[in-house]
Amino acid sequence: MTAYSLAAPFRLIALEKVDSTNDEARRAAQAGSGHGTVVWAREQTAGRGRRGREWVSPAGNLHCSLLLDGGPEPSRTPQLAFVAAVAVRAALADLVPGAVFQVKWPNDVLCHGRKISGMLLEQASSLIVAGIGVDVAFAPEPGLYPTTCLRQLGSGAEPFDVLAGLCEHLGVWYARWRSEGFAPIRQAWLDGAAGLSGPVTVRLSDETVLEGTFAGLDPEGALLLVEAGGGQRKVLAGDVFFRR
Amino acid sequence: MAKTPIDGELIRSLATLLDDTHLTEIEYEAGGLRIRVARNVQQVVSAAPATIAPSPAATASVAPAPGGEDPANHPGAVKSPMVGVAYLLPEPDAPRFVNVGDTVVEGQTLLLIEAMKTFNTIRATRNGKVTAILIENGQPVEFGEPLMIIG
User: Fold this and answer.
1) Do B85 and A236 touch (CB under 8 A)?
2) Across the interface, do B138 and A204 touch by the CB < 8 Å criterion?
3) Chain A: nearest CA to B22, how far in angstroms?
4) Which InterPro entries match (chain B) (predicted)?
5) What residues contact residue B85 under an 8 Å CB cut-off, 6+ apart?
6) Whole-angstrom Cα distance, residue A164 to residue A174?
7) Do A78 and B115 touch (CB under 8 A)?
8) Which end is more exposed in chain B, N or C (fewer Cβ atoms within 10 Å of the end residue's Cβ)?
9) For the range A141-148, what are the long-range contacts, defined as Cβ-Cβ under 8 Å and sequence gap of 24 or more?
10) Which ipTM was obtained for this model?
11) A70 CA to centre of own chain
């Protein structure tokens, strides 16, 4: 896999198979790799989602993890979740011009309501590792959400095509985030948001279930939920379901 | 089960017991109600979800412990660098990163804080012993909120 390379500031570590690209990226960070390092594996044997959920990772789909400098303020690093989501959405829109891609809070990407990409961001030494999965050739069995893949959408793109496009857009959006702050990222995210102003169910980590209207994002990216009684809640972590 | 009223008398006697015995924490469980009182910590009454209607704020703060002080001022306080949801275990079925009484070394992972699906690792900034865990697993935390005390 030596023929592949990415434009600066990204540097590619391409692997046939790895346990988890996030774990490999963390090991790379500990060994001194810096901002812009991209770990890409054709296959993950222990791909992970949020809170230990399995991420099905066959060859044919994109599994990659990017080391990013989270900036000087640790409290703002979660904003990178939105930077990455906006970049993935843009990259997929380039590959399938006729399709409508949307972001789902905080950083899934959907096509016509079906999940096509998911992410998991973790701290790795002084950097953030942004683990990004895109279903290219195979849509996994639906778990919490319905799924799709680029192949089902009529695209013949290969995983590296998606990775290259994603890095191109991420480079641009990351630079804007560092120079202009969260506002333009937040706006781009809202412009492509699924379910805005519609009914939503949020399941929190303690299994509490909130229902209400998805009213938008607060200035830091928290999901704003207006409950039936009119009260507004800020959600920082949870699983979001759109109701019809 | 019907909603259990908070038993102020019980909490007061537990707090007195805590004071008399110089323990840092007492946990008492009976009839589906669990009460934990801890020193140098806001006293927390936490109820099993079956007992009291579930709410993200399933903990009710009551008056500070007698002789208690603000844990945020403790020199060993580990404070949250961000708003988010705190996790004391790496995955839902895994053991906790640390428990009260554990000896930790600088750099050891104490907990995770999730915000917007970004997981931040909170590490011990010094060697010592975990003398208090001030939050529950899955609890929302604020910027600067004390999370643990490393004595």
Assistant:
1) yes
2) yes
3) 32
4) AcCoA_biotinCC, Biotin_BS, Biotin_Carboxyl_Carrier/Decarb, Biotin_lipoyl, Single_hybrid_motif
5) A204, A205, A236, A237, B113, B114, B115, B138, B139, B140, B141
6) 15
7) yes
8) N
9) A141/A56, A143/A53, A144/A239, A144/A241, A145/A108, A145/A114, A145/A115, A145/A241, A146/A113, A146/A114, A146/A115, A147/A114, A147/A115, A147/A116, A148/A111, A148/A112, A148/A114, A148/A115, A148/A116
10) 0.85
11) 15
Task: Decide if A114 contacts A7 (C-beta within 8 A).
Answer: no
Of A123, A206, A237, the CB nearest to B84: A237
Apex A212 CA angle, A206 and A214, nearest 5: 100
Contacts of residue A179, defined as CB under 8 A and 6 or more positions apart, other chains included, come to none
What residues in chain A have their Cβ under 8 A from chain B's Cβ atoms?
50-52, 74-75, 77-82, 106-107, 119-123, 128, 204-208, 220-222, 236-237
Place of tokens 């994002």: A217
**Total count of residues recorded for chain B:** 151
Of B55, B94, B117, the CB nearest to A106: B117
Backbone angles phi, psi at A74, to 5 degrees: -55, -30
CA-to-CA dists, residue A227 to A138, B60, B116, angstroms: 37, 22, 20
Does the domain at residues A11-191 carry the CATH identifier 3.30.930.10? yes
Question: A11-25, B2-16, B38-52, B64-78: lowest mean pLDDT where?
Answer: B38-52
Residues in chain B within 8 Å Cβ distance of A77: 82, 118, 120
**pTM for the structure as a whole:** 0.79
The dihedrals phi and psi of A9, each to the nearest 5 degrees, come to -90, 15
Structural domains in chain B, CATH included, are 8-38 (no CATH), 62-150 (2.40.50.100)
Nearest to B120 among A74, A119, A222 (CB): A74
Q: Is the pLDDT of residue A108 over 60?
A: yes
Give the CATH number of domain A199-242. Answer: 2.30.30.100
- The domains of chain A are located at 11-191, 199-242
